[in-house]
């Protein structure tokens, strides 16, 4: 799935190895700020590199 598409949602959940790993809420953030938070979270989930 695309981090750009996900940035339009109110909540994004990250699943790793079949388990809930992390979730973030958009709140009052702009779509661009939330997109960056999603990208940063993907880097965390992927061990420091974003491979989408």
Q: How would you characterize the overall build of this protein?
A:
The model has no long low-confidence stretch (mean pLDDT 89). By secondary structure, the protein is of the alpha+beta class. The chain is built from 2 helices and 2 strands. A hairpin with a 2-residue loop joins strand 1 (11-16) and strand 2. It is globular, with a radius of gyration of 10 Å. It has one domain (3-45). The chain has a two-stranded antiparallel ribbon. Helix content is 37%, strand content 25%. The protein has helices spanning 3-6, 31-45; strands spanning 11-16, 19-25. This is ABC transporter ATP-binding protein. It comes from Staphylococcus aureus. One of its GO terms (molecular function) is ATP binding.
Sketch the major β-sheet: 2 strands, antiparallel
Oligomer: single chain
Tell how many strands the DSSP assignment holds.
2
Please state the structural category.
Answer: alpha+beta
Strand order in space, largest sheet:
1-2
Give the uncertain stretches in residue-range form.
none
Q: What coarse outline follows from CA principal-axis ratios?
A: globular
- Number of domains as seen in the coordinates: 1
Element-by-element helix/strand order:
HEEH
> How much strand content do the residues show?
25-35%
Q: How widely separated are the two ends?
A: 8 Å
User: Helix coverage percent of residues?
Assistant: 25-40%
Count of helical stretches: 2
Overall mean pLDDT stands at: 89
Taking Cα atoms only, what radius of gyration do you get, to the nearest Å?
10 Å
Protein name: ABC transporter ATP-binding protein
Keywords: ATP-binding, Nucleotide-binding
GO molecular function: ATP binding
């Amino acid at each position: 799935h695309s981090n750009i598409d996900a940035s339009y949602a109110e909540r994004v959940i990250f699943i790793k190895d079949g388990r809930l790993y992390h979730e973030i809420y958009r709140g009052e953030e702009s779509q661009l700020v939330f997109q960056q938070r999603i990208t940063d979270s993907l880097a965390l989930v992927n061990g420091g590199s974003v491979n989408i």
